[in-house]
Each structure stands twice: as C-alpha cells, then as structure tokens.
Amino acid sequence: MVTQTERDSVKVIAIKLQYFSELQYAIADNVIQFLKKGKPMIYITCSVFAKENEVVVEKLAQTHNLKISNMEYIKGYQD
Hints:
extended
C-alpha cells in the first residue's frame, strides 16, 4: 500500500522535474541566439529523465529548425 507521504513525494518530484525542464529549455532557447552560423550547440545534463534531455532537445530542434546530429548517454566511470 502506498502512503500519503509517498504520494506527496511523487507529486513534489513531478513538479520539480517540470520546473527544471522548463528552466533548461528557457536557458538553451536563450543561448541559441548567440550561436555562430554553422556552429554546434552542445547540450549536456546530469539528469536521466527524458523530460530534461530528449524532450528539451526535440522542442529546441522543432522551435528553431535545428538538426540533431547526435544524442547519446555518456557512460560514467567504470571499475
């Protein structure tokens, strides 16, 4: 059984995820105007959530008619 505290925690995470996704989009959207023609923009986050990664990149690509040349997860250190 899921407790009220657990339900509240999930709601808080969802709200924070939405906030940071919107913030990341706004920052990247603002940066695009300063890119030199033909130069790439590299977008990297430390998040594993699609809403903060792929969703932001796809929205930027659609909004600004950008070409996505590569999208991948970077593996962390290995033992």
